Amino acid sequence: MRGVLGIDEAGRGPVFGPMVVAGVLGPDERPGIGARDSKRMTPSARRRKLLEILRDERLTVDVEIVWPWEIDEEGVNEAELRAMSALIRRHRPDLALVDKPGNYDPDRVRRALRPPRGVTVIAEDRADERYEIVSAASIVAKTYRDWIVRLLELEFGVEVGSGYPSDPRTVRALRRELRRKGPLLEYFRRSWSTYDRLASELGQSTLDEFV
Known about the structure:
The protein contains 8 helices and 5 strands; from the N terminus they run ββαβααβαβαααα. It is of the alpha/beta class. It has 2 domains: 149 residues, Nucleotidyltransferase, domain 5, CATH 3.30.420.10; 46 residues, Arc Repressor Mutant, subunit A, CATH 1.10.10. A 5-stranded mixed sheet has the order 3-2-1-4-5. The longest helix is centred in the last third of the chain and has 25 residues. The N and C termini lie far apart (68 Å).
């Protein structure tokens, strides 16, 4: 099956955890699965809808996980485009509908994705609101990212919360890991201003103790 591939991401902005780029391949852009933009759904509703998507034999689900160290090295836009390109090249749909990353011009996005011959790419703002197949991809991406964050919390025994700089739990976790140089630091994005600011504050605090 070629069909239509909807692509969306979750996790561009957090200081903690990966970005997940998801693709859902279906027979057309509106497969009638009742999917809608994941940001308008509760976590439990997203999980239920994800199970429906996974059980639907007409659909194929795929994900690319972009880890913090890859984002630090490439930049979030380039890392996202690389992951989207990988999904398109793997599935070679007739049409790829992409929720456009960043402030890039749609034509620039299409060129950067380097689609194989015969694949049409449409990159739009808010594609997750316009096309059900992209809404399905947004649900997959958001739910998978949430699972990864929870698994990391369980593995390291540290509550991280949402991973966003605005979340006090995330800031507390980062401050704690910086102070003790814990193994969870690997999963924070060092190129983010939040990381740099807290590392600088901790360094100054440590210096003050010796003055």
